[in-house]
């Protein structure tokens, strides 16, 4: 978190003092330009993922359907249809499993930082915990192709969650004007090469990812505010909203070109819930919706608890790369197997409605002119299946089909989340909730099952991820009907309250499982009686204003104390406590040692160190082991006064334990050495 604070040292003040009012205006314009580029590139990536998934999924469907038709024709010529059903099922299961295993293998061979949705990692990054390699170009490339393989491979995943991570990586790269992975420096946006600025742009990238995924720019801003950054201001809100709007417009525009209707902006996001024309619901249905929220909270808590124990098992026994790839392949094969068993056992044959177009219909053993409902659900992409559950006419799915799908998909989705594949939990949660929500709608006579599917989807997603404000707006924007705003809000609030009673949200669980030192908004209920000095260690590792080079090297090389910041004190002795003068970061000391900024060398009139030297080394500062310091140089001294931050956060020793929201309340104070213990940690 110390990296996210502006280091207002003498170098910073000199640079700011030399900038003219026009220079500050140019910096502000550059921020808007960067946000526009973030939105544009995030929209392009979303469009690329969507088009490739659509093309490959259609190719896969045609191949598998052709195999099914050939098998059916062979069976009809030689034996009764049910007698050869086992052969038909086995033959096509093998064919589809080959596709699933192939794509599952590609999806599982990704980078570890590209696994999952990436939302927990971005949430940590925006709140002061820098997870290594989480916003690198390699992570983005693996994330994009991994999510394509995961979706096409038939895994119970969605491509919307990884879009948030992709947008954050785009923002981290564009805002720096260079790529450290490709070793290309465009010599632009050099002013923003620090974590303070980079954090704000990553917030914009995460919001742009939400906007591209759901066509919800306002929801993207609220997501970044609610789940992401703990640092916010009014201008940041406008820039993030601008990036979100550009993102959804870019996706919409290029999708219209691909669909052959240039300029017809009818696809705002990767998932389109469709228009809920009839937004009517009765007053007596609100308690039913609230009860559905409670059901979603219970199911979400069960999902999270089961996924927690499954992840614990993975950490203990499936930690090698080849085992992780094998598990991804097994998950893909198991998903194909379960789907074929359900399709073979189901006799839910439906006739398409007058205005209903089935994207990938499969007849199987149904009469001519009809299709197998559960086969249609499994062979569609998850986004199309969600839309069908929302809008297909009443009677399109019988209750047994919905129950079997809900039961099996619950465990498949739970198994899939946590694999080393790029996978989001948004769409599987929506699909799962829409299935049991429509089941409730079927059981209630004289009711529209579509609105119950919508409420079930909101309840299930809220019960798993525990989002309220942003998810309400996302759902309302995705449906295009504000009439459902109140019941959606009530459902999400109920699912969160009920779910929190049993277990934490899925993202918070995975943050803890990754051993990330994430600081919550509120301190534990029993910790308010503790003071800072009771929990901190001593002695404090600190430096004098003028310190020997050897001492600095020894402290930085100490592997048992990898502190990120060190207090600078004056009049420091072993017996008397010193007075805090400022704080200096490990990365600053590394750069000073690299450039040999020693007092004894000042007489040689070497070039004065500038902020540009620190920005050029950012973000991959060299390790202390790579810096050679001779024995003579160890006896030299370094004056840290010019480079330290004279206004660090400090906490008086009488103050209790603090949380993120408390840190901004305290300013520099002249406290004794005992009170530096909290500042060091």
Automatic annotation (TrEMBL):
Compartments, record wording: Membrane
The cross-references to InterPro entries, in alphabetical order and at most eight, read: CBS_dom, CBS_dom_sf, Cl-channel/antiporter, Cl-channel_core, ClC
Query: Which segments constitute the CBS domain?
Result: 532-592
Read off the CDD domains from this record: CBS_pair_voltage-gated_CLC_euk_bac
A Gene Ontology cellular component where this protein is annotated is: lysosomal membrane
The main location class comes to membrane
Instruction: List, alphabetically, the SUPFAM superfamilies matched.
Output: CBS-domain pair, Clc chloride channel
Q: What is this protein called?
A: H(+)/Cl(-) exchange transporter 7-like
Species this protein is from: Scleropages formosus
């Amino acid at each position: 978190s110390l990296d996210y604070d502006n280091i207002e040292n003498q170098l910073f003040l000199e640079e700011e003092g030399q900038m003219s009012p026009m220079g500050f205006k140019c910096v502000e314009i550059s921020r808007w330009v960067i946000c526009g580029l973030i939105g544009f590139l995030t929209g392009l990536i979303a469009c690329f993922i969507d088009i490739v998934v659509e093309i490959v999924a259609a190719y896969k469907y045609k191949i598998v359907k052709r195999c099914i038709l050939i098998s059916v024709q062979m069976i009809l010529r030689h034996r009764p249809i049910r007698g050869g059903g086992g052969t038909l099922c086995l033959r096509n299961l093998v064919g589809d499993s080959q596709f699933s295993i192939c794509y599952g293998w590609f999806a599982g061979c990704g980078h570890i930082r590209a696994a999952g949705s990436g939302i927990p990692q971005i949430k940590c990054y925006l709140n002061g915990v820098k997870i290594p390699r989480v916003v690198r170009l390699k992570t983005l490339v693996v994330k994009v192709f991994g999510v394509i393989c995961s979706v096409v491979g038939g895994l119970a995943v969605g491509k919307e969650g990884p879009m948030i991570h992709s947008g954050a990586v785009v923002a981290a790269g564009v805002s720096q004007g260079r790529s450290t992975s490709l070793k290309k420096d465009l010599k632009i946006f050099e002013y923003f090469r620090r974590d303070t600025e980079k954090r704000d742009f990553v917030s914009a990238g995460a919001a742009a990812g939400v906007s591209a995924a759901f066509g919800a720019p306002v929801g993207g801003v609220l997501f970044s505010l609610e789940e992401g950054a703990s640092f916010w201001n009014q201008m940041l809100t406008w820039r993030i909203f601008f990036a979100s709007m550009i993102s959804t417009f870019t996706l919409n525009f290029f999708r219209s070109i691909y669909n052959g209707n240039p300029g017809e902006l009818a696809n705002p996001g990767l998932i389109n819930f469709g228009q809920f024309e009839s937004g009517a619901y009765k007053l007596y249905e609100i308690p039913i919706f609230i009860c559905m929220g409670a059901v979603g909270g219970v199911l979400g808590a069960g999902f999270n608890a089961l996924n927690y124990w499954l992840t614990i098992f993975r950490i203990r026994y499936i930690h090698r790369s080849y085992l992780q790839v094998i598990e991804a392949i097994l998950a893909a094969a198991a998903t194909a197997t379960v789907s074929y068993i359900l399709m073979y056992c189901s006799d839910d044959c439906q006739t398409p409605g007058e205005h209903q177009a089935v994207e990938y219909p499969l007849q199987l053993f149904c009469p001519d002119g009809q299709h197998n409902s559960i086969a249609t659900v499994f062979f569609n992409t998850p986004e199309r299946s969600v839309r069908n559950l929302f809008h297909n006419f009443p009677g399109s799915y019988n209750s047994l089909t919905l129950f079997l799908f809900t039961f099996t998909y619950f465990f498949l989705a739970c198994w899939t989340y946590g694999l080393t594949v790029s996978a989001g939990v948004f769409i599987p949660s929506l699909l799962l909730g829409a299935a049991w929500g429509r089941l409730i709608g079927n059981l209630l006579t004289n009711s529209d099952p579509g609105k119950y599917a919508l409420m079930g989807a909101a309840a299930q997603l809220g019960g798993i991820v525990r989002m309220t404000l942003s998810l309400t707006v996302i759902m309302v924007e995705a449906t295009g009907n504000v009439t459902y705003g109140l019941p959606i809000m009530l459902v999400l609030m109920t699912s969160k309250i009920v779910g929190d009673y049993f277990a934490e949200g899925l993202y918070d669980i995975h943050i803890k499982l990754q051993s990330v030192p994430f600081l919550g908004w509120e301190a534990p209920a029993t910790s308010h009686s503790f003071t800072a000095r009771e929990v901190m260690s001593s002695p404090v590792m600190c430096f004098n204003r003028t310190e020997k080079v050897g001492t600095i090297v020894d402290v930085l090389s100490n592997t048992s104390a990898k502190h990120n910041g060190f207090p600078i004190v004056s009049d420091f002795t072993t017996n008397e406590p010193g007075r805090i003068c400022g704080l200096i970061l490990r990365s600053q000391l590394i750069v000073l040692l690299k450039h040999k900024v020693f007092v004894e060398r000042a007489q040689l009139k070497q070039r004065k160190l500038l902020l540009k030297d620190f920005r050029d080394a950012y973000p991959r500062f060299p390790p202390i082991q790579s810096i050679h310091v001779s024995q003579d140089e160890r006896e030299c001294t370094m004056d840290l006064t010019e480079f330290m931050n004279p206004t660090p956060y400090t906490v008086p020793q009488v103050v209790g334990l603090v949380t993120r929201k408390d840190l901004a309340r305290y300013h520099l104070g002249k406290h004794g050495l005992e009170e530096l213990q909290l500042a060091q940690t």
